[in-house]
Amino acid sequence: MLKWNQINRKGHKMISTTQRSRTNVYLNAEMKEKAKEIFKQYGLGLSDAFNIFLSQAVMEKGIPFEVKIPNDETLKAIEDAREGKNMSKISLDELKKELGA
Fold this sequence. Notes:
Blueprint: E1 2-7, E2 13-18, H1 29-41, H2 46-60, H3 72-83, H4 92-99
Antiparallel strand pairs: 1-2
């Protein structure tokens, strides 16, 4: 049996006692390494992080974060940004002024 305690984003303590099961998943290698570095800062391994994700998915009865499909306008903006099109430089002060902050 594997026991672990973790606190989720809402501050609820999750306690789980489960049997371990090996599984294979295909991951983007670059994303995996970046994620491992982030999890390491929390003292978590990849398996721990996946188990937390699965626990949250079960508790939420769905994906535990909002997933949005970008509309055509957003997709065009993403494409333009990646190509450096329609971009302009703005200082933080200018941005604050524009936003009225």
